[in-house]
Design brief:
The structure is a single chain. Helices cover about 50% and strands about 10% of the residues. The chain has 22 helices and nine strands. The chain is an alpha/beta fold. Strands 2-3-4-1-5 form a five-stranded parallel sheet, sandwiched between helices. A two-stranded antiparallel ribbon has the order 6-7. Strands 8-9 form a two-stranded antiparallel sheet.
């Protein structure tokens, strides 16, 4: 039996990668009711040298990054994959579209170095001349980076150029004022930077046969962590610019963004749009959905088995109350294991499950709060509860797309499932309404 002390690590909220994919990955698509990854993979392999601009969405914690990591592994024989996270390498709170080209230049030069790709010296010269323009010279002085000189050997130039753009990226993360100066300096010469970026992309793609590859793909992770306002600025105000990369690019976005009133207009600037469905634990009529429950059971079995639960069937309580959200499932199991360890137990019991579910429910209850703008009441708590009550009692499980329902989707109080577009309350929220006697049924989390 796996010791409870290892539960925290085995149910890490980080995406699976490397050896963890071999140890813990479970094909969850039967439980999701669809497999967009197969379609995405087929699109890429059908035209490896293309330049599809792709939106890839899903709820936070539903497994997007894990599925993209697995896709990256499966296409690695044919593609050079440039993958970076805006959460880890940029400032998602104040991200600017200009930074996507700066970090892409940095990563492209890293690729050139990694694969020993020989680049046309003229490209080094062009980028060097751009770096010495008056606008960009100010950034060089601001970051303390040496100027890019032409005439040096390629093997020396590549790390120098990667470092130059890396310093620029890091400088933009240092402070808001520094970022502002860097962006203001680059924007007048942005078209040149975009041109240099695509020149470098074309150079890399032209040399791919030399390293036995067929295509180049850029995966930009964690754009789903942006605020709705920042996502709108990036994908609506600047979509024509960020989609100008002349190679395949996958942009990860929050599924909530799909309910934004401008999303249809945004989609028109992209070539493909894929959504990773949530895993279902119940169907539209509230009946238990065995395919989804079995998938989640397999995920738990791969990581710790069911022997850690007393009785083993207790595992289904965690599964059913997660609503199919892997992040919530993992959080409850981790919290339950922690509570068990605090009481010197070797097994997770019903009481530990109750404690973990109360904690999850409390988190959701705190999100159902009145909405104020400039100290003006926009939506009361009662109005939000009335919407939630209507969803719980609805036979169609359809929800009008209003600003209030958008808020409830954004907090994951309401979750959409499969291609039919039906939605339901998160089980934690369903329990809250039961406790308030708004809908029939006992509060299932109470200890008898």
């Amino acid at each position: 039996m796996v010791p409870l002390s290892s539960v925290y690590e085995r149910f890490s909220l980080d995406a699976l990668s490397g050896d963890e994919l071999d140890s813990y990955y479970v094909d969850a698509f039967e439980g999701r009711g669809g497999n967009p990854i197969k379609s995405l993979k087929r699109q890429l392999l059908n035209k490896p040298g293309g330049d599809l601009q792709i939106l890839f969405s899903g709820y936070r914690g539903c497994g997007k990054s894990t599925e993209l990591n697995k896709l990256q592994r499966e296409i690695s024989d044919d593609f050079v994959v440039l993958n970076f996270s805006v959460l880890k390498e940029l400032d998602p709170v104040n991200i600017n579209y200009v930074e996507l080209f700066v970090i892409t230049m940095e990563k492209l030069f890293d690729v050139v170095s990694q694969y020993n790709i020989r680049i046309n010296p003229q490209l080094f010269k062009s980028v060097s001349e751009w770096s010495r323009s008056a606008e960009i010279e100010e950034i060089r002085q601001l970051t303390g980076e040496a100027s890019l000189e032409t005439g040096v050997k390629a093997e020396v130039s590549v790390p120098l150029f990667a470092r130059f753009f890396g310093k620029m990226r890091a400088g933009a993360n240092a402070s808001f004022s520094t970022k502002k100066r860097i962006i203001e300096s680059i924007e007048p010469r942005l078209s040149d930077l975009v041109g240099h970026c695509n020149d470098l992309i074309r150079e890399v793609k032209s040399k791919l046969p030399d390293i036995d590859k067929k295509g180049l793909i850029i995966i930009i992770e964690d754009l789903d962590k942006l605020s709705i306002e920042k996502a709108e600025e990036l994908f609506f105000n600047h979509s024509n610019i960020i989609t100008s990369f002349q190679t395949h690019v996958i942009f990860t976005v929050s599924v909530i963004f799909r309910y934004h009133p401008k999303f249809k207009l945004i989609k028109e600037d992209f070539d493909e749009d894929f959504e990773l469905p949530m895993i279902k634990v119940r169907d539209k009529h509230g009946e238990l959905y065995s395919a989804g429950r079995n998938v989640l059971l397999d995920i738990i079995k791969y990581r710790i088995g069911t022997e850690c639960f007393e009785p083993p069937e207790l595992v289904y309580e965690f599964i059913d109350k997660s609503g199919g959200c892997l992040r919530d499932l993992f959080r409850m199991i981790r919290d339950a294991a922690d509570n068990a360890l605090n009481h010197d137990q070797t097994l997770i019991t019903k009481n530990d499950y109750i404690k973990s579910f109360y904690r999850l429910r409390h988190d959701y209850e705190n999100t159902i709060a009145e909405k104020r703008v400039n100290n003006q009441l926009i939506t009361s708590v009662e109005e939000y509860y009335n919407i939630l009550n209507a969803v719980a009692l609805s036979e169609t499980k359809k929800l009008d797309n209003t600003s209030n329902t958008f808020d409830l989707r954004q907090s994951y109080c309401v979750i959409s499932y499969d291609s039919e577009g039906w939605c339901d309350l998160h089980p934690a929220v369903h329990s809250i309404l039961q406790e308030r006697n708004m809908i029939p049924g006992p509060d299932e989390s109470r200890i008898e």
